[in-house]
Design a protein that fits this description.
185 residues, binds inosine 5'-triphosphate, 6 strands
Length: 185
């Protein structure tokens, strides 16, 4: 069985990746190595900087993931600042910013950065809407206020496997899994 490290401090991300990659013959190991998250508007730039930094310290194949929520009415805010905004104003704060707003379109983006014989980036997007209220206790972060367009439930009302079928992270990981299986990008 092949070992693959996932560098993340986020338990929710790790749970989803483990579930998604379960059927590959890969042993996924969580590691919490600190790496600088540069300030950039492009998640790909942030992920690429991260994998190049970590590749000098970790010699086994690994990946990390950078993600964010982009709200149309807020000109794509919080985007790359999603972690900070979640830790400060949280879901109630986002709902307040959108109070009375009709356009509730938003999307999540995930960039998975794999380092295996060099850097590889895989992207996934999940489009949907910001709900009017908090719904559900599953998942993490913005999950209870985001409903993907394919489903009426919020991510916060879904099991991990269900969320993975629609989510930005599920999609990006699926592309990475295909690459790991076939070697074709
Ligand atoms: P790492 O250690 O992997 O960096 P992190 O939580 O700091 O974990 P990011 O820097 O990628 O991760 O921040 C993305 C933030 O966006 C994350 O903390 C959540 O608040 C939010 N987010 C990302 N994906 C999400 C998802 O699937 N559901 C809900 N919120 C999500």
């Amino acid at each position: 069985m092949e070992e693959l490290y996932f560098i993340t401090g986020n338990k929710g991300k790790f749970k989803e990746a483990k579930d998604k990659l379960r059927c590959l013959n890969i042993e996924l190991i969580q590691t919490k190595m600190e790496y600088p998250e540069i300030q950039a508007s492009d998640l790909k730039e942030i992920a690429l900087f991260g994998i190049n930094f970590c590749s000098e310290r970790l010699k086994s194949p690994f990946f990390l993931e950078d993600s964010g929520l982009f709200v149309e009415e807020l000109n794509s805010f919080p985007g790359p600042y999603s972690r900070y905004v979640q830790d400060t104003i949280g879901n109630d704060g986002i709902l307040k910013l959108l109070s009375g707003v009709k356009n509730r379109s938003a999307y999540f983006k995930s960039v998975v950065g794999l380092y295996k014989d060099g850097p590889h980036l895989f992207e996934g997007i999940s489009r949907g809407t910001i709900t009017n209220e908090i719904r559900g206790y599953e998942g993490f972060g913005y999950d209870p206020i985001f409903a993907p367009e394919e489903n009426l439930k919020t991510f916060g009302e879904m099991t991990t496997t269900e969320k993975n079928a629609f989510s930005h992270r599920g999609k990006a990981l699926e592309i990475m899994a295909k690459y790991l299986e076939t070697g074709v990008e």
